[in-house]
Amino acid sequence: MPDTSANTQHPGTPQSMTAFAAGRGNALGHDWAWELRSVNGKGLDLRLRVPDWITGLEAALRARLSAALGRGNVTLSLRVSSAEAGGRMAVNTAQLDAALDAMAEVEARAMARGLSLAPARLGDILALRGVLETASADTNTEALSAALLADFDAVLTDFLAMRADEGAALAVLLDAHLDEIARLTASAAKAAEARRPEAAAALTAALSRVMEDASGADPDRVAQELAMMAVKADITEEIGRLDAHVAAARALLAHDGPVGRKLDFLAQEFNREANTLCSKAGSVALTAIGLELKAAVDQLREQVQNVE
Questions:
Q1: Which of 156, 178, 245, 288 is in the most buried spot, having the most CB atoms within 10 Å?
Q2: pLDDT tens digits for the chain (308 residues)?
Q3: E strand segments, the chain
Q4: At residue 98, what are phi and psi to the nearest 5 degrees?
């Protein structure tokens, strides 16, 4: 099997899970049409709709897709028809079973609601897409399968190229979001440093008020409690973790291979730190920066969902 991914994946560029490719071909007295598409998915979900009378075709196609893809909900459809006179009609049993199962479910739901449906006619069932296919009576399915697999390589190459192109566009967006997060993190660090004298004065004033109103209170104990409050309001650790997450995300974007799951985890960590920063803000300026940071993180998370 040729390596279809070698010429389409750009080193250091994430791959998108969204792509589409189509193709047509003919050989051995048959015409065919391919459609290959994918959308976002937590794992790799392959759904193949191919003629079951072509021996070994589905297993071979599934193996090629599994080797080339890491994640995504992928659908491959193949329609084959005879280009010769005298072709025979063959029932695609898998498609027929799926259609009958769907009809049974519809009828059961209708009966549960007191509705009566007219019986389905044979012609209606056979007219459903994929149920009835054309096959030659003397078809050499092994030779046809080999021809189809050879033709599929070009479709898969186009498909992977689109995933790579979409991934390159995603990388630009993700870089921009990371730049914005880094900028806001730096602004938060400056705002936190600027509020430090004001926060210290506020704690000192609070200590004075407490000592005036609390007769017999242990000054050391009160000072210790106020110091703990100051530590809880400090965002130094959050700033450090945000900077580390930005660096980790950039490293992942420069890495070859599927990185979507790791980026998704990092996006959740970004969100956690942004929420903590907002809860510790203690000033209007830092709160405003925290809210902008949350918005930037949300945009990052949305785009990360498209990465393989």
A1: 156
A2: 444 443 344 446 889 999 999 999 999 889 999 999 999 999 999 999 999 889 899 999 999 999 999 999 999 999 998 876 445 667 778 878 888 888 888 888 888 888 888 887 887 787 777 777 655 555 578 999 999 999 999 999 999 999 999 999 999 999 999 999 999 999 999 988 877 666 666 666 666 666 566 555 566 665 565 555 555 567 888 999 999 999 999 999 998 888 999 999 999 999 999 999 998 887 888 899 999 999 999 999 999 999 99
A3: 19-27, 30-39, 44-49, 72-82, 88-91, 132-135
A4: -65, -40
Decide: pTM greater than 0.90.
Answer: no
**At a CB cut-off of 8 Å and minimum separation 6, what does 207 contact?**
222, 223, 226
> Are the CB atoms for 65 and 46 separated by under 8 Å?
yes
Q: Determine if residue 303 is left, alpha or beta; phi over 0 gives left, psi from -120 to 50 gives alpha, anything else beta.
A: alpha
Which DSSP string do the residues of 258-276 spell out, in sequence order? Answer: --HHHHHHHHHHHHHHHHH
Contact 169, 303 (CB under 8 A): no
DSSP code of residue 252: H
